[in-house]
Each structure stands twice: as structure tokens, then as C-alpha cells.
Amino acid sequence: MQHLNLSNMLTESRNPNSEKIDNCSTLEILKIINHEDKQVALAVEKQIPQIAKAVDIISHAFSNQGRLIYIGAGTSGRLGILDASECPPTYGTPPEQVIGLIAGGQPAIFKAVENAEDNPQLAISDLKNINLTAKDVLVGIAASGRTPYVIGGMEFAKAIGATVISLCCNPNAPMITTADIAITPVVGAEVITGSSRMKAGTAQKLILNMLTTASMIKIGKVYGNLMVDVEATNAKLIERQITIVMQATDCDRNTAILALEQSSRHCKTAILMILANLNAEQAKQTLNQQNGFIRQALKHNA
């Protein structure tokens, strides 16, 4: 087996602040973890210009029938799947618009699959299975920045003309040179040496939140700060829809419920009906003409 040198990876280095953590009280352990976690948001802040470039490319892809694909192994793969799975209920997107791929497939979501992350060919097969095209954007996620599965996927995506983004936490990682845009939050050594599900994982989660949230805002899925494309798939979300319509229009509860009923529980349509005094069909047509942007629909109808 080939020797893998981890010594030059910041994510694998030893943290002097936690070298005696096993001899600390519970309170002291938690304070050390919390102190290290405070560094994460600052590391992410330094990457905002790169994240902004990525968001502009992702939102452009969405507007041109392209998809956002996350690819990762272990914790990184699971975080991509988590972010992708939250988009349909939150923003009413089709399940295929944001996809998370993990080395080893579905079993790896729950349990490590041996050697899967070391196989770049697996990534190529996974991307071919979802028919990756040049319209799509691929985000390779790996705390170390060296995972063969992820790099294999990134190289394949680049070869077919897709935009490739890297998200890793080592400043000199191999992934960075493969990417069109490199997002590299440098969070430093972990509290427990090499446990990159901690600070590195938190940084990745924050950035994935930014990528999808900002992209959804830019394609009209948000009005003010309200998730106006939320799908009512359970009792809580049915109530959330009512509240959103009330907040967006300053109407009473009964008016919101009636508009939602008449619009087949489509929040945006219900909001436009109330604000522009339109019936459901008129509101739906106006929204379609304005690509789903409520503010543009209101200006058009003024």
C-alpha cells in the first residue's frame, strides 16, 4: 500500500490549544472546542469574494437549466447530500436541480465504505450516471483537498466543460489547481487531531448554506427574507405557508388561507394575488412571464 504523507496537511496537524484536553474537566473541554469553533466564521469570511463568484455561476446555471452537483467522501459527501436534500422542501426546487454524490453511494451516508474515496473511477461512473453536462456546476468537497474520488470527479467535469469549484481547508491542496474557483477556508488544526468533521466540517456547512441560499435568492425563490417557494409537505409547512403569505402581504389569516386554497397552495401566486389584486390564473401567468420574481411581477402589474 502506498504511503500517504499527512504531515504537510494543516487539517491533519496537531493543535497546541488542545494537547492536554484529555486531562480537562467537562467545562474546560467544551470551552476549548467553543474557542476553536469561533475561528471558523472568520475563516469563511475571508472566502466571501470566492463564494460570491461561485454563487453567480451557480445561479446563472440554474437560470439556464443547469444543475449544482456536490461530490465528496465521508463527512464532506454527507454535508453535500444534506444541503442538496434541503433545497426541494425549502425552495420548491425539483430534486434533480441540486444533487449530492458520495463515494460509496447510499450505504456510505450511514457507514464508511472501505476504499471508496481512493477510487477516482467511481466518481466518473457516478457523474456519468447522472448525465453530467457542460451546463452543470460541480463542487468538489474535501477537507484535506486531496481525496482521489473527488479529484477524479472534478477532472472529468472539467474535461466535459462543466464549471468546477473546490471546497477544502488546506491552502496548498491538489484540488485547488483543478478548480475554476477555489474556496479555501483555512480553519487550522482540529481540537482532536485529524477529526475534520469538526472545524473543517462546520466551515463546509456554512459555505454550502451560502452557495444554495444566495443562489436561490438570485433566481427569485425569496421575497424579502421569506422562503416564498416553500412546499407544504407537512402540518408545520402548511402553517409556515400561511404565515409567509400573511407576512408578505400584511393580510389576515383567513385571506391568506383563501388565497393559498385558490392557488393550489403555491405561496408566490397567493402573495401576488393579494398584493396585485389578481385572480389565481392571472397571478400565475404574470409570475411565469417574470421568471418567478415577485418584485418584477408587481412592477409589471403596477
Explain the overall architecture.
By secondary structure, the protein is an alpha/beta fold. The chain has helices at residues 26-45, 48-63, 74-91, 107-110, 120-129, 148-159, 174-178, 199-218, 235-249, 253-262, 267-276, 280-289, 294-301; strands spanning 68-72, 98-102, 137-141, 163-167, 181-183. The protein is 52% helix and 8% strand. It has a five-stranded parallel sheet, with helices on both faces. Helix 3 (74-91) runs parallel beside helix 8 and helix 5 (120-129) crosses helix 6 (148-159).
Instruction: Give the low-confidence spans.
Output: none
Order of strands in the sheet with the most strands? 2-1-3-4-5
- Silhouette: globular
Backbone CA Rg:
22 Å
Counting helices, strands and paired strands, the structural category is: alpha/beta
The proportion of strand residues reads 5-15%
The total of helices stands at 13
Q: Mind describing the biggest β-sheet? A: 5 strands, parallel
What percent of residues adopt helix (DSSP H or I)? Answer: 40-55%
Strand/helix succession: HHEHEHHEHEHEHHHHHH
> What is the terminal-to-terminal distance?
69 Å
Strand segment tally: 5
Core attributes:
302 residues, alpha/beta, 5-stranded parallel sheet, 13 helices, 5 strands, 52% helix, 8% strand
Helix and strand layout, with pairings?
Elements: H1 26-45, H2 48-63, E1 68-72, H3 74-91, E2 98-102, H4 107-110, H5 120-129, E3 137-141, H6 148-159, E4 163-167, H7 174-178, E5 181-183, H8 199-218, H9 235-249, H10 253-262, H11 267-276, H12 280-289, H13 294-301
Parallel strand pairs: 1-2, 1-3, 3-4, 4-5
Helix pairs in contact: 1-8, 2-8, 3-8, 5-6, 9-10, 9-11, 10-11, 11-12, 11-13, 12-13
